[in-house]
Amino acid sequence: MIDQQRIRRAFARAAAGFDAADFLHREVRERLLTRLLVVAATPELILDLGAGTGGATNGLRERFPDARIVSVDLAPAMLAAGATQAAVCADAARLPLTDGCVDLIYSNLMLHHCPDPVATLGEARRVLDDSGLMLFTTFGRRSFIELGRAWATADHYTHIAPFVEIQELGDMLAASGFIEPVLDSQTLTVTYDDLDRLMRDLRHAGSTNATSNRNAALTGRGAWRRLAAAYDQLRDTDGKLPVTVEVISGLAWAGTRRGDIEIPIGQIGRTPRGPAH
Length: 277
Hints:
Layout: H1 4-14, H2 18-21, H3 23-35, E1 39-40, E2 45-49, H4 57-63, E3 68-73, H5 76-81, E4 87-89, E5 102-108, H6 117-127, E6 128-139, H7 145-154, H8 166-175, E7 179-192, H9 195-204, H10 221-232, E8 241-253, E9 260-261, E10 273-276
Parallel strand pairs: 2-3, 2-5, 3-4, 5-6, 7-10
Antiparallel strand pairs: 1-9, 6-8, 7-8
Helix pairs in contact: 7-10
């Protein structure tokens, strides 16, 4: 189980420096915006769900200049740090919107922060028009596997949230009332010289241990030494600490009527590897 209030507090602390620190969120955001180029639709209302500081707003506006764009985020500090004109602070699983009022939902790296992803997807389906579309990314099961392995040798607490498998996500979409989902995953590798820099980047990007079996006290020096020693054993041939991130991208229609979309057949079901950073 994920502690949502802990996540809200972590993003509140990270809000002021989020745009400068979170290069991964920015990279995935740009890739997701590129996917909108294949969507031939004219949405009137777009929801940027889990908008953070509104980094996707300009890209959405360029693609759909006549649409109204509303940014939604759980953390008011994130919305306040951005330049979004229309912003709503709300839980993604309890949106203050009427049924069927949204034409397009764009959501970048938000779903894995939700305690109940099925409830969040169900709420997204509720506010979407029957011809509406949801386009999103989330972390997959292979994300942060090196960090998880290293922590497993350091103590008996959980430190990494349980991310989803791509098939599991497809089942969630179907259970929530979405149709014709197109899912694929990309594996990115980020490398670091040292563990301190890695942990600092995670903290500045709003990442926190919000699992129910986390250590309620501060992590002791012994556990940190064991963590560092275990991660050192995973250095690559260049002496760098690798961080694997699996990014699942999804596109799904809300109802029986669908808009026009063109997807190159080669993109369906493939799992390309992203570049190392």
